[in-house]
Amino acid sequence: MHMSLDRRQFLQVAGALGALGAFASPVALAQALNPERMSPWRNWSGAQSCLPAHQLTPKSLDELVSIIANSTGTIRPVGAGHSFSPLVPTDDTLLSLGYFSGMLSHDSATHQAEFGAGTSMALMGMALNEVGQGFINMADIDHQTLGGAVATSTHGTGINYGSYSSYVAGLQLVTAGGEVLDCDASRNPEIFNAAKVSMGALGVITRLTLQNRPAYRLRENMWVAKTEDLLADIDKHVSENQHWEMLVITHSDYALAVALNETDEPATPPVNKAESGGNEFVTLLEKLDKYGSDFPAARRFLLNNLQHFATFDERIGESYEIYSNVRSVRFNEMEYSVPAEQGPACLREILQLIERNNLSTWFPIEYRYVKADDAPLSMFQGRDSCAISVHQHYSMDYHNFFAAIEPVFWKYNGRPHWGKLHTLNSRHLKQLYPQWSEFTGLRQNLDPQGRFLNGHLRKIMGA
Q1: Do 99 and 118 touch, CB atoms closer than 8 A?
Q2: Which residues of 335-347 are buried (b: 16+ CB within 10 A; e: fewer)?
Q3: CB neighbour class for 318 (10 Å; exposed up to 12, middle 13-18, buried from 19)
Q4: What is the pLDDT of residues 177-203, one digit of tens each?
Q5: C or N terminus of the chain, fewer CB within 10 Å?
Q6: How far apart are CA 83 and CA 79, in angstroms?
Q7: d(Cα 453, Cα 136) in Å, to the nearest integer?
Q8: What's the predicted TM-score (pTM) here?
Q9: Packed helices 278-292 and 7-16: angle between N→C axes, nearest 10 degrees
Q10: Distance from the Cα of residue 310 to its chain's centroid
Q11: How confident is the model at residue 289 (pLDDT cuts 50, 70, 90)?
């Protein structure tokens, strides 16, 4: 039996291994005690939630400024809720920029375009393509809003490509005092550089100008190989491909390698997913999850041999179509970025730990590279990095699994992704970021009362 799978289906297959875990019960919220608080907020995975006093969606800049000036308590901007860390939750005010959306302007000479910060990234690729532009790089999930993706330095992969934040050419920031600041390399440059990765701690970003490039197509090639063989040739893979990553299948010896490269060739026809055989593959892995977890040796044997049942069709399409994938299986995630040269050693140690302790997980470990930048709180500030992500199905408790692995990241001077789960506080973080004090000092000047800080950000900022 051979089945042709695309990358989305491969990730769904891996995610299905956790689908039989115990369903996590939602946190009981005492809404009946306060009838004004009838709209709870939850993030995509369901792990973060809150019951805010106010959920506001201003329709104009003037209305936004008025809300900030006249409200009391904490204000947290909210996007698509795709951050796994508790950046959003507050009992006070959640502020959506849903009306600050769409392309506002574009320049065909410079290949720059300005968007409202509340624009869904799923809509941006097509909008850019229509004016002859394309993202320089793109993450493989496009659920996020632009403002949220930039605030957390969300990224794709490629040794010559930075995160979304590194391609911000200008932005507009509304401060706690209601001041509207237009920022770029020449106007308010210190604030501009800090605000490119700020987790919403400096104020509300309403619009962003991105540096793009002419529209282009990508070819996607995927293959399954032994993880150690891929690591042995890692320099070749990352230097010979514009965008390269691998998804390491835990409790096996294999990984899925993914290479994306620019091409002028015509787009391939869409894959008919109904005839791809993916459902049979998912059913097979669900049975492995149910019957194989108590027999580690047998599980490894079976997982290693599943590679013989999958082939992957080459895909060519517009860049934004190839970069992004549908993630229909929910999960929680922890990601750290380590110095690029330390990536293979860090991954090997994590895999050894999972096997030695027979840690319960089924999702692939995502392994990617990101170019250095200069934003003070970027995970990639001052160093080329390898980003390693571990996942757990949303219905399974992630705490023990992530707690076992996180110290490995610390050993390699890892910096946590701001939108992913981690346990570090300001005492640890200021040792990882050379410009930490400069950022926190600027934040204090812009927001002395901490209006934009929830409990999680106070822990991070030491405020």
Answers
A1: yes
A2: bbbbbbebbbebb
A3: middle
A4: 999 999 999 999 999 999 999 999 999
A5: N
A6: 9
A7: 32
A8: 0.90
A9: 20
A10: 27
A11: low
